Amino acid sequence: MNTKTIVAPITAAPRNRLRLSLDRFGLPLVFILLCVAMAFSSEYFMTWRNWMDILRQTSINGILAVGMTYVILTKGIDLSVGSILAFAGLCSAMVATQGYGLLAAVSAGMFAGAMLGVVNGFMVANLSIPPFVATLGMLSIARGMTFILNDGSPITDLPDAYLALGIGKIGPIGVPIIIFAVVALIFWMVLRYTTYGRYVYAVGGNEKSARTSGIGVRKVMFSVYVVSGLLAGLAGVVLSARTTSALPQAGVSYELDAIAAVVIGGTSLSGGTGSIVGTLFGALLIGVINNGLNLLGVSSYYQQVAKGLIIVFAVLIDVWRKKKR
Amino acid sequence: MATPLLLQAEHVAKAYAGVPALRDGRLSLRAGSVHALCGGNGAGKSTFLSILMGITARDAGSILLNGAPVQFNRPSEALAAGIAMITQELEPIPCMTVAENIWLGREPRFAGCIVDSKTLKRRTRELLEGLEFDVDPTSPMHRLSVAQIQLVEIAKAFSHDCQVMIMDEPTSAIGEREADTLFKAIRRLTARGAGIVYVSHRLSELAQIADDYSIFRDGAFVESGRMADIDRNHLVRGIVGQELTRIDHKAGRECTATPCLQVDNLSRNGEFQDISLQLRQGEILGIYGLMGSGRSEFLNCIYGLTKADSGSVTLHGKPLPIGLPKASINAGMSLVTEDRKDSGLVLTGSIVSNIALSAYKRLSTWSLISARKETRLAEDMVKRLHIKTSSLDLPVASMSGGNQQKVVLAKCLSTQPVCLLCDEPTRGIDEGAKQEIYHLLDQFVRAGGAAIVVSSEAPELLHLSDRIAVFKGGRLVTVSSDTHLSQEALLSLAS
Fold it and tell me: Same domain, yes or no, for B407 and B448?
């Protein structure tokens, strides 16, 4: 080809780089601006205690959102995480009150979550039921099973070691925050540095190409629901410890906040693009909004409206940005 | 000039984010003529055409339709003025029928709101029969092959009563027999006084159908004239900007007697029957066939994308499991699929992640990817295949067709295959990129590989392959090692 055709893309490169960096840092920027605005509105906002509160409240939604990111990257959706969370919380609390050790209790919760994830994965990957429908079914099934499990009553009187998972501290930092951080780190690394991570992106980006390239598309699809279920199970354990009792009605509509965090974080519902880092900021943004509105004394009715508006606007900005290309 | 000018465009320009895509677009279309618009990928043809259609707004320049200046802000305005377009990208609504797709938005109705499906079907049947297209009006779009979808797209353009028709690569997805039917339809249209702007990378086709030509290069008009006054070399020179030496890729190529791929009695219901083939090491085997001859289906089946009903595939003496692309890749086989956007690339992914997609097993230890190995592989491939890009991390969606096709090829070569299957490896890419891909395939077999190339372009196969297998109606008609066959002889074997 002619040399001139080669010149054009190179001159375009600095622009591309600018755009790429805006894509990557746009959300953190919004997040920082929000924090600065809050710091001026309330002097309590920038205190250590308040930030620990924000992070602790974000941790449950954050853990769910990490799993949700995997699912949405493959063009799927998991509506059942709130119900799985409640079911797993009850399972682990039951094991804990029976006097088995902490490890057994936590394992039981995570195992229960993962098993429901396996059912989701089987429905989506092997029976080809659309993810929305399959997990909508599981939302109801898991919730029902939670009520059946202990006849609709909560489980209280949890042992102290168990409660430490929710209200304990290691040094100055709450245990749920640490669990959340470890989960985010592990699943960020898996997505970024392993072959499995690349396959998740490829399956969501183009299922046919992934198959032609020798990737086990069904296996990948199946696995993301297990990941999501497993993390929902873990979140259930932490939540029951934090609220000092496992409630069968826990986690209702938590899936919506998790999806919101993922979408605000820039992961596309049409699959193939997004990241755990984005999701972290998405979850933190929701946490700061909740906290900020509380500090400003906005009533919880208005809070819901405000949160909804912010979610829609965050995605609208994303849509505009993509249109400009 | 005796014949009036239908459409006249001058100094049309358009820039995206400061980067000019089109600097000086010009075109003078005479009534009753076919005007070939030529240029390589990135020459600005597509931008120019989308400006004509009102899809993109121009920054500068003038467009006259029948002598009066026009400014279209959306395609519907262009359509209303009598300009229709067949686009390169196919955009059917999959679950609606052929008839519904063709008349979308202008269905015949009762009382303004109820669709008159009887008239709809009748009109579609008349339209398709008039064009001699073999497509069922009541069949849903998702049941059609790529070629049939292309025919429907063409029929849709013909259904508008237009005076100017723009055809952007109308034959890229269809075979030669369908192309001939299309040419007949084009001649009927020009006889009525309509003008046609015709874009195609198949130069032999242009000589056959076009009256005039214009060449664009690097976003600007270069020259125009009568097709009859110039030859193919002149055209190629104008498009590429320099003399393009046509190398005889086959010269001195020697295939060994060692069989590489052995296919025995392979059948798949409704697609192809009882096909036995042998591919030897060091050779390129061409497969020629018309639309619906089962050639692509055969290739997909060997590779394992679909399951054969009976028969076997053996690679280097080892039988391949049926229906497992992963096993085929591990055994040393790789497939360049027919449609790069649909099944070749992950468009949301970067160049490097696309190139490495099939090779991660080799690039990782304990499933941890080595970024160093990954980057080195991608850099090697970019160098080896002359892929033009400023960064490996750019999304493949931003690349031109020719470069995207090279990325697909790079992905396939990354698995270090011994047997390469290529389905229409040069579809919709320009002459320069085509030659590069021929060269790559040739190098690949000379280095001890073997390749099957499926193509609907007879000259391409005659140029490239050592032997040509002809498919017809799902069966293997003949395997000819006489590559001095004429194009006509091939066509008559296939139809």
Answer: yes
Using DSSP bridges, classify how beta strands B60-65 and B5-16 pair: parallel, antiparallel or unpaired.
antiparallel
Task: Name the residue of chain B whose CA is nearest to A208's CA.
Answer: B343
Q: What would the pLDDT profile of B376-413 be if each residue is shown by its tens digit?
A: 999 999 999 988 888 888 888 888 788 899 999 999 99
- Of all residues in chain A, the one with the smallest CA distance to B300 is A212
Residue by residue, DSSP assigns B173-239 as TS-HHHHHHHHHHHHHHHHTT-EEEEE-S-HHHHHHH-SEEEEEETTEEEEEEEGGG--HHHHHHHH
CATH code for the domain of B263: 3.40.50.300
- Of the candidates B305, B356, B391, which has its C-beta nearest A13's C-beta? B391
Using CA atoms, how far residue A245 sits from A158, A175, A237, A240, B251, in Å, is: 7, 17, 10, 5, 81
CB distance A2–B42 less than 8 Å? Answer: no
With an 8 Å Cβ cutoff, the interface of chain A facing chain B consists of 1-2, 4-6, 8-13, 15-16, 20, 193-196, 198-199, 201-202, 204-206, 208-216, 268, 271-273
Same domain, B155 and B293: no
Is residue A96 situated within a structural domain? yes
A292 backbone dihedrals φ, ψ, rounded to 5°: -60, -45
Residue B257's pLDDT is 78
Specify the DSSP element, H or E, that contains B419: strand B419-423
Distance CA A59, CA A61 (A): 6
Phi, psi dihedral angles at B68 (to 5 degrees):
-105, 135
Q: How many domains does chain B have?
A: 2
- Residues of A in Cβ contact (< 8 Å) with B431: none
The pairs formed by A313-322 with CB atoms below 8 angstroms and a separation of 24 or more are A314/A27, A314/A30, A314/A263, A314/A264, A314/A282, A314/A285, A315/A263, A315/A264, A317/A26, A318/A266, A321/A22, A321/A23, A321/A26
CA distance B241 to B334: 34
Tell me what pLDDT residue A82 has.
97
Q: Are residues B358 and B291 in the same domain?
A: yes
Q: How confident is the model at residue B214 (pLDDT cuts 50, 70, 90)?
A: very high
Residues 6+ apart with CB under 8 A from A166: A175, A176, A238, A239, A240, A241, A242, A243, A244
Pairing of strands B83-86, B164-168: parallel
Q: Please state the rounded mean pLDDT for residues B436-456.
A: 91
What is the residue range of A223's domain? Answer: 49-324
Helix (H, G, I), strand (E, B) or coil at B288: strand
Length of chain A: 325
Residue B408 · residue B345 · CB < 8 Å: yes
Q: Is B64 within the bounds of a domain?
A: yes
pLDDT of B258 > 80? The answer is: yes
Interface touch B337/A268, C-beta < 8 Å? no
Q: Tokens standing for B264?
A: 């025995």
Judge whether B394 lies within some domain: yes
Structural contact between residues A202 and B357, judged by C-beta atoms closer than 8 angstroms:
yes
Tokens of B148: 């049939």
ipTM of the complex: 0.80
Tell me whether residues B357 and A271 touch, CB distance under 8 A: no
Burial profile B455-475: b = 16 or more Cβ within 10 angstroms, e = fewer: bbbbebbbbbbbbbbbbbebe
Left (φ > 0), alpha (ψ -120 to 50) or beta: where does A63 sit?
alpha
Q: Searching chain B, which residue's CA lies closest to the CA of residue A16?
A: B394
Residue A320 is part of a domain; what is its CATH number?
1.10.3470
Both B375 and B299 in one domain: the answer is: yes
What's the confidence (pLDDT) of residue B390? 83
| Residue carrying the six token digits 């109308």 | B170
Min distance A136 CA to chain B CA atoms (Å) = 25
Contacts of residue A261, defined as CB under 8 A and 6 or more positions apart, other chains included, come to: A61, A62, A65, A68, A279, A282, A283, A285, A286
Compute the nearest-CA separation of B368 from chain A (Å).
4
